[in-house]
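User: Please write out a complete single-protein record containing the residue sequence and its fold in C-alpha cell form, without commentary.

AI:
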Amino acid sequence: MNNSARRSIAPSVLSCCTRCKKSCCAICRISFPTTPIMSKLTAKIVYRLYHRSRRHSQPRWAHLADQGARRPVGYRAQIRALRQLRYALSLLPVTCEKFRFGVIGIVGESRKQWQAKARRAEELGYSTFLCWDHFDYALAPLPALLCAAAATERIRLGTLVLANDFRHPAVLAKDAATLDLLSEGRLELGIGAGWKESEYREAGIAFDAPAVRVRRLAESVAIIKQLWRGKPVQFKGEFYEIDGLVNKPRLYQHPHPPLVIGGARPQLLALAAREANTIALATRMNADGSPDFVDSLGPRVAAKVAYVREQAGERADTLEFQINVGGVIVTPDRAATAEQLAPTVGLSAAQLLDCAQALVGSEDEIVADLVERRERWASPTSALTSASWTR
C-alpha cells in the first residue's frame, strides 16, 4: 500500500473510531467519511499514533476502503467487512476506548459563532465539546451545550466541571436529564467541589473549607444519581433534604450519562474513584488563583492515578483519566523552547517537558510524549486529553 493510500485510510478509520464508544456499531459500518477528522496538527499526531502498528497495512484494507467508498455491499460481505474492521481496530495502539481528544469552547459572542465552533469541533473529529463553569466567562455551560447540541449530530457534550455550590442537585439533575434527552444521549456531566474563591465572594456564595465542599459534593452526587433513576427519592443529609421528588424527563442514556468528577485533593479523588466514570486530574491552585504547575509534574500525576486506582478497587480498570493540556508548542527545537518557556511558569526546562499540562516538541516528539504518558499514568484505562479553544 502506498503512502497516499495510507493517508486516505488512516484518518477515515480513526474518524470512525472516535465517533462512537464501540469498536463496531451501526454508525461505523464500513463506509468511511471523507472529511478531515481533526486539525492539521491533531490529524498528523493521531495518524502517527495509528501507524505505530505496522500490521494494519495489509492489502485488504485498500480493498475494504475502496469497497466502502464506491459501492454498497451485500449482507454477508458487510458482515465480513465488519469483522475485518473489528480485527484491524484491535491492532491499533490508540482507539476511542484508549485515547480521546476533547476541546474546551470558551468564547462565544453570538449563537451563530458558538454553533459554528461546535460544528467545527465535530468536523475536526474531536470526541467531546466541553464547557467550563465560571462567572467571568461569557456563556453558562448547560444552555451553551444545548445550543451546541442543536447544531451537531455526533460530538459528545460535557462540562469540565460544574461547581457544585452554584446549583442545587435537584435542579442540576433535571437540567442534565433534559440536556441528555434533547441531545439524544451525548451528555457527559462533569462536576466538582469548586475552587475559585474570588468568584464565590463576588457572587455572595459561601466558600467553605475544602472538606466541607467535598462532603456537600458527595451528597449532591448521591442525590443526582438517585433522581436519575426516575423513582421517588427520600434523602436527608448534612446539607440537602429531598422529600419524595421524582425527576423528569427520563434519561436518554442508561443507566445514566457518564459522570466526570474533577479535583486534586485526596478527598475529592477518593470520591471520584467511588462514583465517577471519568477522573479529571486537576492541578492545585496557588493563593492568587494561578496554577501550581509543580502539581502537574509526572511523579505527582502518577501518585494521583495510583491513589485513585487504589480507592476504586474493582472499578479501577473501568475508569477513564482526563488531563487538560493548557499549552501545545510545536517546534523543531524542543530543548531550546523548553529553556525559554520554563521560567514563565516557574519550572525548569526538564520539569516543563514532564508537565502534564504542556506538550512541547516536534509532532513526532509530542506523539511519543502522549503515548508514554498514557502508558505511565492511565494504562490499561482510557485517557481523555482536552485543550482550550479560545478563538
The radius of gyration is 22 Å. Residues 3-91 form one domain. The chain is about 45% helix and 15% strand. The longest helix spans residues 210-227.
